[in-house]
Specification:
By secondary structure, the chain is an alpha+beta fold. Helices cover 39% and strands 25% of the residues.
Length: 186
């Protein structure tokens, strides 16, 4: 099982990047007693047969992971969603991309903690390749959105320790501001 919701975001968005997406959009929304995650991309997508088997723990897309014959990411996501009174859906079209939608009842005792979204997003931004990733987190009536290109330009890329430190500080500050909104509104 995933240790946190941030792990689900990181795993799903990493799959989008590996699927050669040029645009990945990640939305995390905490509202109305529910937490929803949406990861959408314009990557290579899956045909109907592959998409239908994506939640099977004994299946992985041929050629995706040469050393593995099983794929546990989506089956674990489905198990987590269902255990938390939520749902999961996967929409994909070959050559057009994939969208994963997950929801969790926020008050469910089994919902994983949010985890370190700042670290998860920074790790995704640091992937090699020419792609854009836009991350949005909404909570308590507040939100922030940041794109990979925008943050890379602001901090001078993601290649140096100093740039990574600045990016981490920015993302952590955004997450703390959202958390502070909830406390201030209590």
């Amino acid at each position: 099982m995933h240790a946190s919701l941030a792990d689900i975001v990181a795993d799903a968005a990493a799959n989008s990047i590996e699927a050669r997406a040029s645009h990945v959009k990640v939305d995390v929304v905490e509202a109305g007693g529910e937490i929803s995650l949406v990861i959408a991309d314009d990557g290579k997508g899956m045909d109907a047969g592959t998409c239908a088997r994506a939640f099977d723990p004994f299946f992985t897309e041929p050629g995706k992971h040469d050393a593995r014959k099983v794929g546990m990411g989506l089956p674990f996501v489905k198990q987590t969603c269902e255990a938390c009174g939520g749902s999961v859906s996967l929409e994909s079209e070959k050559g057009r991309g994939t969208t994963l939608r997950c929801s969790f009842r926020a008050d469910n005792i089994d919902v994983p903690p949010m985890g370190d979204l700042a670290a998860a997003v920074l790790s995704l931004f640091g992937f090699a390749g020419d792609f854009e990733l836009v991350f949005t987190h909404k909570k308590g009536g507040e939100e922030y959105t940041i794109s990979r290109s925008e943050l890379a330009e602001a901090v001078g890329g993601f290649e140096s320790v100093d740039s990574l430190s600045l990016a981490r500080e920015f993302l952590s500050g955004q997450e703390e501001a959202l958390s502070g909104q909830e406390v201030a509104g209590s």
